[in-house]
């Protein structure tokens, strides 16, 4: 699997929510308007935003897949600006077989 240096550097910017940096049960407060990220991964589109982990009071970045956004959109709505100051709970871990790694299932709170 090829990866560009730019892609690597983009991934290392900021403290991303992951199974290494957060845990099931954490609540995340969305602190910036979500933005579409088409650049970081070839042929994949994500929604990214700044969050604060309420357990650790740590500022982090959250990247959501289309499926994860579909879980939140019915509660948070279609307008990205209305997601600011909303809260997300890390409900569970799951294995993403296509990526070969674990990720989180998020639910609105």
Structure description:
The protein is α+β, with helices and mostly antiparallel strands and 109 residues long. The protein has one domain. Helix content is 17%, strand content 37%. It has 2 helices and 6 strands, in the order H-E-E-E-E-H-E-E. Strands 1, 2, 3, 4, 5 and 6 form a 6-stranded antiparallel beta sheet that branches. The longest helix has 11 residues. The model has no long low-confidence stretch (mean pLDDT 88).
Give descriptors for this structure:
globular; 6-stranded antiparallel beta sheet; alpha+beta; 109 residues
Distance between the termini: 37 Å
Percentage of residues in strands: 35-45%
Radius of gyration: 14 Å
Q: Quick check: average pLDDT?
A: 88
Sheet with most strands: 6 strands, antiparallel
Helix content: 10-25%
> Are there runs of 5+ residues with pLDDT below 50, and where?
none
| Class by alpha and beta content | alpha+beta
- Helical stretch tally: 2
Work out the number of β strands: 6
Domain count = 1
- Described by the principal axes of the CA atoms, the overall outline is globular
**What is the H/E string?**
HEEEEHEE
What's the short version?
This protein has 109 residues and is of the alpha+beta class. The chain has helices spanning 5-12, 66-76; strands at 27-30, 35-37, 46-53, 58-64, 87-96, 101-108.
Set out the fold topology.
Blueprint: H1 5-12, E1 27-30, E2 35-37, E3 46-53, E4 58-64, H2 66-76, E5 87-96, E6 101-108
Antiparallel strand pairs: 1-3, 1-5, 2-3, 3-4, 5-6
């Amino acid at each position: 699997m090829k990866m560009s240096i730019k892609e690597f550097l983009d991934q290392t910017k900021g403290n991303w929510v992951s199974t290494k940096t957060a845990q099931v049960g954490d609540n995340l407060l969305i602190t910036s308007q979500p933005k579409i990220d088409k650049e970081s991964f070839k042929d994949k589109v994500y929604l990214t935003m700044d969050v604060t982990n309420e357990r650790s009071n740590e500022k982090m970045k959250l990247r959501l897949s289309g499926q994860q956004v579909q879980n939140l959109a019915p509660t948070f709505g279609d307008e990205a600006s209305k997601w600011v100051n909303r809260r997300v709970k890390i409900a569970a871990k799951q294995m993403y077989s296509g990526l070969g790694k674990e990720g989180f299932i998020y639910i609105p709170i």
